[in-house]
Amino acid sequence: MSLKYNIALSSVLSACLLAAGAAEARGDGRPEWLQRDSLTVTQLGTVPSWSVTGAVSAAKGSKLEKSFTQNVLNTLYGEIPGLTVMQGSGEPGADSPSLNARGYNTLETTDRSVLIIVDGFESTLDNLSVQEIESVYLLKDATAAALYGMRAANGVLYVTTKRGSIKPLEINFSAQVGFNTPFKTPKFVDSYTYATLYNEALENDGLSAGGYDDAALEAYRTGSDPFLYPNVNWQDELLKKMSVLQNYNLNFSGGNGTVRYFALLNVSDNNGFFKGTDPAHETSSNSKYTRYNIRANVDVNITKKLLLNMTLAANIADQKGPAGGAYSIYNKAALTPPNAFPVHNPDNSYGGNSAFSNPVGDLLETGMGSYNSRNIQTNLRLSYDLSALVKGLSIAGAFSFNNYFIGNSNKSRTYPYFQVEMYDGEYYYNQFSELTSMEIDDSGADQWRNMSFTASLNFERTFSKKHYVWANAEFFSDEDYKMTDTDLKDWQFPYRYIGVRGRAAYSFDQRYMAEFVFSYEGSDLYMKGKRFGFFPAVSVGWIASNEGFLKDNDVLTWLKLRASCGTVGHASVIGKRYAYFQDYRYNGGYYKGYNQTIVSGMTEDEVADRNRTWEKERRFNVGVELGLWDKLDFTFDYFLHKRSDILVPPTGAIPSVLGMSFSELNLGRTTNQGFETSLSFYDRRPSGFEYYAKGNFWFARNVIDYQAEELRLYPYQVRTGHQIGQPFGLVAEGLFRDEADIESSPVHTFSEVRPGDIKYRDMNDDGQIDNQDVCAVGRGGTPEFSGSLTIGLKFRGFDFEAMFYGVGNRTMYLSGATYWSFMNQYSAPASALGRWTEDTRDTAQYPRLSTQGNSNNTQYSSFWQRDGSFLKLRYVEIGYTLPERCSSAISASAIRFFVNGTNLFRIDKVSGIANADPENMNGFPAMRTVSLGLKLKF
Amino acid sequence: MKDIIIKTLLSLAAVTSVYACDFLDKPPGVDVTEDTVFSTERDFEAFLYGTYMIGIHSIYPYGSNSNGGENPNPTNCMTAPITDEGEMAETWYSAQEWNTGSVRANNIISQEDSRFHLRWKAIRRCNIILERLPESGFSSTDIDHWMGEAYFIRALNNFEMLKRYGGMPIVENRLTDDDNWNIPRASLADFVQHIVDDCNESARLLEGVTYTTSQRGRVTDAAALALKARTLLYAASPLFNAAQPYMEYAHPELVCYGNYDENRWGDAAEAAKAALEAAAAQGFSILDTDDPENDYHNMWEVYDNQEIILAEKYNGNRGNWNEPWCYMLPAGLLLNGWSAVCIPHNFIRLYERMDGTPQQWNEPGLIGHDLMEKYAEMDPRFRQTVAYNGSAWNSQNPDMQLYEGATGISPTPSNNVTGAIMHKLIPYSMTNSTNYQMTPNGILFRVAELYLDYAEAQNEYAGPTQEVYDAVNVIRDRAGLPDLPAGLDKDEMRERIKNERAIELCFEDHRLWDLRRWMDAEEVLDGPYYKVVITRISGSGLNQVCDYVISQYEERTFHRNMYLHPVLENEVFKGYMFQNPGW
What we know:
The complex is a heterodimer. By secondary structure, chain A is mainly beta. Chain A has a domain at about 5-170: Beta Complex (Ferric Hydroxamate Uptake Protein, Chain A, domain 1), CATH 2.170.130. Chain A has 11 helices and 45 strands. Chain A has a 22-stranded antiparallel beta barrel. Chain A has a 5-stranded mixed beta sheet with strand order 3-8-9-6-7. In chain A, strands 1-2 form a two-stranded antiparallel sheet. In chain A, strand 20 (about 445-465) and strand 21 form a beta hairpin. In chain A, helix 5 packs antiparallel against helix 6 (about 215-220). The longest helix of chain A is centred in the N-terminal third of the chain and has 14 residues, at about 190-205. In chain B, helix 3 (about 40-55) packs antiparallel against helix 6 (about 115-130), helix 8 (about 190-205) packs antiparallel against helix 9 (about 220-235) and helix 9 (about 220-235) packs antiparallel against helix 10. Chains A and B meet through strand 26 and strand 27 of A and helix 1, helix 2, helix 3, helix 6 and helix 20 of B.
């Protein structure tokens, strides 16, 4: 199962295998991640890479380290062909992106995440430190994933952590300190502009009252009265220019024939970029995240035949933030109008009004939330060599316990803020809210716990030097508790899976390979008798370059063809905990009698679905691997995935006369196809100058084949046949030019329209724009293709590496107060400056301003959609390794200094609009980090 | 050595397979299943009351679900503003889509029939009771009693479909995986018969069952027979009791009998008579204390009064800021109303004077000078039903200023669309200081309706006999009006009965369905609608002097396809139900 375990088992591996591995390790200075691995780690043990006939792509921890961020998942952008990583919030400690493998292929939106296996057991990855990661494999096709049976279909990420090897003690120390700045923050207008635009909006609405008079405008323009006519840039008041991100890492590794070890200590800290918070008092807190990771991976040969692998990892994390959440404060800074009130009134009290509290006061006075989590990932494995019984046979048993607990402590209070007005030259203060004592709520907590057990029988042997046979069978049982509350509810019963998985592989002379993989797995989600599913896969491969006619070819150094097909599943855990079980519940009641006594009512819960089953996905994959001149490596995989039995709401299929509702039935079907390719190059000049590049590109397109959709009146309204997540909205045809344009257009029914409002297309030609005109517009938010390019060079101790990452075929949607002016009395974005007016009617890209929440303009439509493609410089790093004579002076074997930039710049198509970030349209901003680092090796 | 290892492996395999057997079983818990429901009478009662909650609709308007259950009429709107009874002051209610003829089959749920899916749920619950209760082992008296209630609730929900759609699918069993769920619509004749059968069965099982006051609200045999009477009255009416459907239609049997048969009126008359007798035996009677200025409004003001055979009781006390009250209270009073239900002058015209003669109103456009005098002459039910200019709403709002340019505490101008506002159904005693929370008592069946059902059917079947006169005069007597004049012929009597029914039962969710079954809707619900514009000359309250002019405020549209609701488009698209004609 683990890398070193298998190396220790190498005594039973054939000489042939060792020879093959050695042949592949190319003895040049290329980075580890550019080498073709000689061994591939799988759930059922390490195998020689040449024998792999499934589709697996991998990333190495050493490369992921180049992205400087606290969350390992945020180092994966573009690194693994087929794995699409979508950035979310940039809030410290809450910045996990979403992952999908080969796109999404389920209609589920809540339970579609990638299965993460760490060192052979289901676990989480986001709170590990990148320095403890050895490799991350994405198991893409049926052969690679079928071992995970009914949990495999949404993709499997198999992670291995670092272990010791036979070598003297090696100590690595690194320190990296960086400066974070928000990648993009939305821009809003100043007070004068705000007031001018507001007056214009009122005029557009035909309203006269409530505008700003000339004196007020003049005061805003000159800034003559900062109390009554304030002009506050709330973002400047609340946000520092930068925050500090630091990471310190110390690890020890080494070992001998009996004991091998890897031990790690890691500290990572982000101190947040809010201004003025006071760590000494609990009235406020910066948005910060500190994490401590420790790990001890130890392998012991207890006897000649008995091997123990121990994996112990733990981390403790403290996340803190303002009461109400960092995003809430950040959002308030963005949306509070600049002229609403001053930060502080003349008497130094907080400004505020009936609509808004003071963002600065909210940050500094309302308390804090802290979230303390601990996470333990442990497993223990014993294996015993049974060669005495049958040559090549061994047995193993393993136990894993993973536990995560997070406790919340929220301290909150309210504070007074005042609206200031002037009468007869004196200030009058109108108080809102009041100072309360701090309330403490420690009740929130969340935890999960996995306990897993496996027992396996393994056989591996080479017959007659040419026939390599490898077979395993593993029994497994998993129990996952998820507890978010103190009282036990039925959905908190542990989720349980049990089954047998196995593999049989044969290869002849390192030329022809065939493999059969299966999992027979059951889950407690389903009714007795319908709990177990069989998930088989077969694959074949041919290494043409090992054939006699190519064996000594200098150009074509590697050529491998492979194909696979099989079935995987996804046991969706949405909705009722036991969907097959019909229960009744108390619900509402009815009054009887003159005294109006209520009697409880009981109701049949949603109909039991006795046939509830898992989603099934049939997968087909073909791949080719090519090596030229030992410098250029190329791989290509094409896949076709057909998913069925997807849970969908059967609204369009179940007659209402049944009298009961089904929440969801296994009726949906989808198809997903695409390809992944990567090309890498390495060369070393005689001068010692090394240069290299690696490009990845992948594409996945899905389509909904069936989803029990209700019948639609018009073909353009049908959702089936489109991609999953296809947005449906109105087609905008620009802005109304004038009253005559409105007269000659279909009647817009959402609100009374005026010139400058959005004009929509009448899809059904009924002379009326309403919800019936909604059709497919744009694309979903998940990119169809992604790509990355890493380039690097090394010369005389200097090294340089940069990575670009880009996505395409996706649509972003601008919505909410960040983009829509004066919504809910909020501010106006800078993009409102390009609004429609009489003079700009030919060029305006933004509708007329309105104070009335003009619902015609806020319908979901193509007007607010933008191309969400972008190209980003993920990281660039320049380093210098001191010559050996310098490092040996302090008895170090290597000393390297480096400068790193992560998330430095991006080219996209939405930057002009309110400074939008196409990866993160409304959330806490992602970070740009520039850092300095030092690495020492002893 | 080999043996030991092999034995160990085999026994390990055996242990794990035993372990695997129950590892995936659902842990034991406190699950409530259907067997639990039918295991004790206490649990069953909870299921029965849940069935009332889901199965008994309301004439009051409700919004989204509250009280943890399913609201009895979540449309936000009564049916009155879809008829000449009302005009919603605020336009966000769906009524205007009917009045402009722009109802659509794809959103009929939000436009009127928000209980479309809920009724099938209620019927399913009744079927579960009817299927499981006989084998429950409870006492046979209890079983009969509860079966009777289940039959009634099933019949009521089917009737609510009958009046909207005509014949609909008959679902007599709880549908399971083994059944065909695509049940087509039944013919109108079969559907009526199904409802009548259930009513008969319910009345038989509930015969002689009486309730203490603490059990009021439960179904009696009188309620079952009243529902049967209403069903047969509807079935005998011109819309259904006809040779041809009201529009060209490929499936005429779904919306009419296919012939006219006078005996259907006879059956209806007989059923109404039986219902009246059963009601009398249960102690239900017209609330008539010879106080015509108060008896009528006490009929909705006094909770569980003697006239109410069955009322919906979904709610306890509701604040005047809560539904249903806020959806009916005028904005601007010292209450928390959102939108008045205004009354078009078209309806006001139906009220007679106290002496039984028609009120004489000026032609539209002509100024009259005696508005307050005219109001003072009206049928006492007018004064109790309508909040009119100068009348008192309650103790806090003694002078409804509905004249132009009113300034005091009175409905806001936008809540005064027609110069008259619905006051009926809202307790007079509700203010914002005392009784700010009151319990809605949603009348579904009351004794007065049975007299009118009987009079109408008997007149059609046997002509204007003395029994017909007697029945109508019971109503007029309580109202404080003189008896009908002798010597009316059948047609004249029909017109008087229709008028009496309109006045007596207004705002109780009858008018829309009555106009449809009489096929009067195309006249009454189409054409100009009028308001009264009031100019105050002097004085206040009822002593003021006012001019008035009647003027048109809107033109309403009724298309003939609106004689029945469109079936929800989604359901039609599922392929098992035919759409109604013209949709």
